[in-house]
Structures are given as C-alpha cells and as structure tokens.
C-alpha cells in the first residue's frame, strides 16, 4: 500500500426504519408518521412528531389531535423496496463498488474515512466505520446522525469498544428481545458482562445457535468481506416535455413511448416493481406498483397508468415523467418432477421394484357433491380400481327399508312414464 494512503474499512449506514427515513427525506422539517396499511395505526414517528406527543400505536385521529401539522402516510412495501434499490444504485455510482443492502435501512460499503464523513453529511445518517460488518453496525448505533464513529480494526481499541457495547445493541449479534430482557433482569448491562461468562455458560443460557455465534464473534471470527455490487438492478427511462401534462391521454402517450425502450433493457429478465416518478411544479411525486410475471407491453402499460393515478400528479402538471423497473431477476420455471425421457425411465424402474407403488386418479364427476362420486383410485398399469387408505368412503349408507322404498319408487316411476 502506498505510504500516506488510509486503508479502506467497512462503513455501516443506518437509515432504519427505512419507511420513516424515506418519508422524512421527502418532507424535511415536517413532523411525519408512518401508518400501517390495514388499521392505520402509527408504526413510526419522527422526532418532531414525538416531541408533539405522537406515540407508536396511536390511531391516526389521535395522532392528528396531538399534532395538527402531522403528515401521516402509508408507505407500501413495493414503494419502500423500489426506493431502497434506487439508493443502493446511487451509493454504488458515487462512493464504492462494494455495496451490500440486503436489509432495507442498513447499508454496508467499503470506504475510507474521508468518504465516510462525506456520506454521513450527505445523508444526515449515523455511519460506523470498522474492520467488519458487525463492529461497524455496533459503532453506527452509538453515533449521532450526520457523524462518523471509527473503530480501529483489531487491537485493544476494538476490544475496549466492544466491552462498552450496551445490552440493547446485542441484537446485531443475533440475540432476541426476550433474551435481552432476561439478561437485563439478571443485572447485566452489556457485552462486557457477557464476556465474563464462559463459552459453555453462554451456550447454555442463550441456546446453541445464538451462543455459538456470540462465542465465535468474541474469539475474533467476523463476517466475510463485502462482495462486489452488481449494478443495473434499476432500469429507468424518462422524458421531459415542452408543456406540462394535465390530461390522462397525454400522459398515456408518453408512457407508450417510454415502455418499449424499458422492455428492451430487460433482455429476458423479470422485474418485481414498477415506479412512476413525476416532476411537477410542487415537487417530485412518485408511486410504485408490484408486477406479476410474465411481463408484456399491455400489462406494463396498465400498471404504469395505475401508478400514475396513485401519484396524483396530473392536477399539478407533469414536466418530466420517469418510469423505473426494479427487483430484476432471471425467471425460473418448474417443468415437472421428472423432465423429459427420464420420467418414463424412473417410472419403469419404480414399477419393476414395487408393482403396486403407483396409482392414478380417474375422475368420475368433478361436480359431484360427495367425494366417492367425484373420483376413484386405479392401478397405474392395469387401470383396475384400487381401494386404499386414500379411497373416498361413502358418507351415508341407506337402511334396508329405505333401499326397498327406493326400489319401489323406481318401479312406479317406470310404469307411470310408460302409460300413454
């Protein structure tokens, strides 16, 4: 390594809970709260809203009565996932080629100290800088927003930092909330107290899986290095118009012009989310919809129009329309349990060894009310009926008197029908 050049470390950027962070970034300085999609209770509240008296679990009406200026909104899962994928693309393009963001709200990058400080100032988020993913996240949890806490890798500095880790941060190492509550009841205050226990004691109290993971961490075992980020997880096309769009027909024409280029960029892949972003006079408005495979031009156009309607940007006038596809993956198909000629070979081998192993279903009447009249099991080779434990049984057997009366009724019905 050249002299005077600082080594790269693992940076952890904490943006959780991500739906609340996303809402705060859209409306800076405004008290906001994230609502649940079903009951419309408060899931997360910003510090400004909490200062005004808004608490988690409140109804929307109760939260608005506490804070009349509160902006309460439902952030859907597709919308949050699409925004997170876009943020990862920005981190890759501007800061590092090694980015990991499998959990929304927690991003890991390989950075130097100067770049980490720039990132913390740009996102106004706490950033932990260390030699491993776990230590970096523990450092980020103890850092104010917009600042960086660097922990030198290995050595006495890292050991002293880990010894002061509070009990509530040990969820990073796999401990559950119930276990943390038990440890707190026993009087433990942090990781330093757990280090006084033996490895066997930790496994006996925390369980084998959690105890072994914690023991490996205390011995110095860390997560593997960050993999290289694969770009292109978000496809985007946009169009800037000369005059603002106010009519649905105009916007539909723009979407028709954009979607062929977007579908061509897929190159056989499938996408999970479609996002429509509109730049208007009042700011940027966007909406996200989840896609279903297989994708075709008509389906993409309909989903894009639905997302445009969700954004509600036509009333303000659209100056620039952007369509994004995220959550890209290669489609997979299950053709069957046995594919091709192997099906015949495997079936023949099974029947040679176990002649009565396989049965087929012969449908009698799929619309029958009783199961014994719907289908029956037959032998795979001969086609003869094979009663087994799976054979439907008669749910009702008529008595002798009822059977006799039924026969009499059938005879009378025959002769009555035969009369001229």
UniProtKB/TrEMBL annotation:
Domain (UmuC): residue spans on this chain: 25-114
Q: Tell me the protein's name.
A: Y-family DNA polymerase
**Which species does this protein come from?**
Deinococcus navajonensis
Q: Which InterPro entries has this protein been placed in?
A: DNA/RNA_pol_sf, UmuC
Q: Name one Pfam family in it.
A: IMS
Locate the coiled-coil region(s) and give their ranges: none
